[in-house]
């Protein structure tokens, strides 16, 4: 009799898994880390851009991990994320409606009950891993029809030094901003029109532009999108003006390194930043962070609840008062290594806030 698998999990929504994993499917292979709290998928390219998504165990109806007493996690392994996505959409899982949802998240618009997309949304997904080194078994079932796929697993590459990814020093952040993801998506889309080679992030806590994105090196010239600050004449409740921040941000903090004259200006390869485009369009919020070494983190919060994003505007104050429950949101994190040594003008080579901070603990788990 076969021994019990070391890991099994069941999801009632193959579409959720497919949509989250597709956000980071910019390379052929993904490294997988299975823990008691969930599954972390990591994809990287040339060690200058990395995408991570964490599938919390709350996303699954059942989640079982059988480890010895001296084990805390399974050895990481890699799989073909392209093959995994093809398996998850074996019954023709459809993308959300092409109509724009300005608040991010999963769209509830799939046509009527007789359209092909409406008939393709269903399907449960069962993941099974017999033992380290064994294939990852995926069983997709819709009604009385089921299909099973065994995906070969491979030895994972050597981990990075920090948390299994491009290291972001959270104790030395020089920029942190939280805003609606659609604002960032619109800015990147606008800059794409000049086909730039580099994206310049420009931020200051003293003078304008307080927060701006620039496209440089394109054949049609340079372009800039500036996020305008609050009016200087708007008083705070105490009657005195507070610190300046862009209107579109919920949180905005700039702490430039010493000798940078109060401004951060860092360059990144534009094509690499565009790898996060799918997550930008799907997410409701994004946390933009940069450390003193210039590593840029874009962490996207994606609402998963059916009623969370149905095209109607949400009450942000109510959402802030009641943090999302586990399983109602998922996080996708992109990290980018800066371009250095070729910018003479560079002055620095370098939900709620609590929701993003809690997710960092999941990404940093061994």
Automatic annotation (TrEMBL):
One Pfam annotation reads: Rad1
Provide GO CC annotations from the record.
checkpoint clamp complex
Identify the InterPro entries for this entry. Rad1_Rec1_Rad17
| Residues passing through the membrane, by range | none
User: Keywords, A to Z?
Assistant: DNA damage, DNA repair, Nucleus
Give one GO biological process term. Answer: DNA repair
Region: Disordered, residue numbers: 341-366
Where are stretches of biased composition, namely Acidic residues? Answer: 341-358
According to its UniProt record, where is this protein mainly located?
Answer: nucleus
Q: Where in the cell is it found?
A: Nucleus
The entry sums up its family as follows: Belongs to the rad1 family.
What's the name of the protein?
Answer: Cell cycle checkpoint protein
The record lists the organism as: Capronia coronata CBS 617.96
């Amino acid at each position: 009799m076969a021994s019990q698998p070391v890991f099994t999990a069941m999801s009632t929504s193959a579409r959720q898994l497919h949509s989250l994993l597709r956000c980071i499917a910019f390379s052929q292979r993904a490294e997988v880390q299975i823990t008691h709290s969930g599954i972390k998928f990591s994809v990287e390219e040339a060690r200058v851009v990395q995408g991570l998504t964490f599938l919390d165990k709350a996303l699954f109806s059942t989640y079982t991990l059988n480890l010895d007493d001296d084990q805390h996690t399974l050895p990481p392994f890699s799989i073909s994320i392209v093959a995994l996505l093809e398996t998850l959409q074996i019954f023709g899982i459809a993308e959300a409606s092409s109509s724009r949802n300005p608040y991010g998240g999963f769209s509830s618009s799939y046509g009527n009950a007789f359209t092909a997309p409406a008939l393709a949304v269903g399907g449960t997904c069962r993941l099974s891993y017999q033992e380290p080194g064994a294939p990852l078994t995926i069983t997709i079932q819709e009604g009385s029809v089921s299909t099973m796929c065994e995906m070969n697993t491979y030895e994972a590459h050597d981990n990075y030094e920090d948390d299994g990814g491009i290291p972001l020093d959270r104790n030395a952040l020089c920029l942190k901003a939280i805003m609606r993801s659609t604002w960032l998506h619109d800015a990147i889309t606008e800059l794409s029109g000049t086909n730039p080679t580099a994206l310049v992030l420009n931020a200051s806590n003293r003078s304008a532009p307080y927060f701006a994105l620039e496209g440089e090196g394109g054949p049609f010239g340079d372009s800039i999108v500036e996020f305008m600050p609050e009016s200087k004449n708007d008083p705070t409740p105490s009657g005195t003006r507070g610190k300046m921040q862009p209107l579109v941000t919920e949180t905005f903090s700039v702490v430039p390194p010493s000798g940078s004259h109060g401004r951060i200006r860092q360059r990144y390869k534009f094509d690499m930043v565009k790898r996060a485009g799918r997550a930008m369009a799907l997410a409701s919020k994004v946390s933009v962070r940069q450390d003193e070494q210039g590593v840029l983190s874009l962490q996207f919060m994606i609402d998963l609840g059916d009623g969370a994003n149905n095209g109607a505007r949400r009450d942000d104050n109510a959402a802030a008062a009641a943090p999302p429950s586990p399983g109602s949101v998922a996080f996708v994190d992109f990290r980018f290594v800066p371009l250095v040594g070729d910018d003479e003008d560079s002055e620095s080579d370098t939900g709620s806030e609590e929701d993003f901070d809690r997710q960092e603990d999941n990404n940093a788990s061994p």
